[in-house]
Write a structure and sequence with these properties.
2-enoyl-CoA Hydratase, Chain A, domain 1; about 15% strand; globular
Length: about 260
């Protein structure tokens, strides 16, 4: 019996997806990529799930594409025709409209870095390492590297990583803004779950709308983003629950005392 390449566990509003090829440091095979898509499509239909967490089994997050599989087929390097022109995130995250947090426990290299970049937030262990090795083998990335990395860490730093294949440690990734924070290895999952639980307290319809709005505005020009926010605010806030807002404000005030 073949072992599942992406394990799924659900704890209330939080889903945890674990890449499960530890012997290869969770290198991304075609079957794993397909399984990720299936898992996110599955989670999309579970309204009670408000946040997803991705991590890796064993010592790695994801060590890039599976080189043995890549040597036998170049299909892994090509984005499907149906994705072109959509601007959608890869690795199945286009199928899931709630936040995804990467808990990066080890190496996140090339396709593994792209997977982390597709997530909404990234928390890294001190053992994490990040790099893009496409230039070493003369391959143009297809998982969003050139679109997302410069937007996170700046053009110069992104070019340094991509063109020199430099591997950076977790402290550098934190300083450059590639990750939200760095924690000790034993604190990685507790810290990630704590963040997920805080996000999961938000009403799911609002969470979906706000998460989508941030993504849409991030990819547009400043003017497009401001206009889009104005339109969304006008349309959504007509149904604003003032009574619920006042009750929540009172509760927050009491907790802060």
């Amino acid at each position: 019996m073949c072992e599942d390449t992406v394990l799924l566990s659900i704890d209330g509003p939080i889903a945890i997806l674990t890449l499960n090829r530890p012997k290869s440091l969770n290198a991304m095979s075609g079957s794993m990529a397909k399984r990720l898509e299936e898992r996110f499509a599955e989670l999309q239909d579970i309204d009670d799930v408000r946040v997803a967490v991705i991590t890796g089994a064993g010592k790695g997050f994801c060590a890039g594409a599976d080189l043995d599989e890549l040597a036998s087929s170049a299909d892994m390097l090509q984005a499907p025709d149906e994705e072109i022109g959509t601007g959608h995130k890869r690795f199945g995250m286009a199928f899931f409209d709630r936040p995804v947090i990467a808990a990066i426990n080890g190496v996140a290299i090339t396709a593994g870095l792209e997977l982390a970049l597709c997530c909404d937030m990234r928390i890294a262990s001190t053992l994490a390492r990040f790099g893009d090795t496409h230039s070493r083998v003369g391959v143009i990335p297809g998982g969003g590297m050139t679109a997302m990395l410069p937007r996170l860490i700046g053009l110069g730093r992104a070019k340094e990583m991509c063109l020199s294949a430099r591997i950076i440690d977790a402290a550098t990734a934190d300083r450059w803004g590639l990750v939200n924070r760095v924690v000790d290895p034993e604190e990685l999952m507790p810290a990630t779950i704590a963040l997920a639980r805080k996000i999961a307290t938000v009403e799911v319809g609002y969470l979906r709308s706000y998460n989508r709005l941030i993504d849409e505005n991030y990819s547009g020009t400043y003017r497009e983003a401001v206009d889009n926010e104005h339109i969304c605010s006008r349309d959504k806030n007509q149904a604003f629950d003032r009574v619920g807002f006042e009750a929540a404000s009172i509760l927050t005030s009491r907790r802060s005392r």
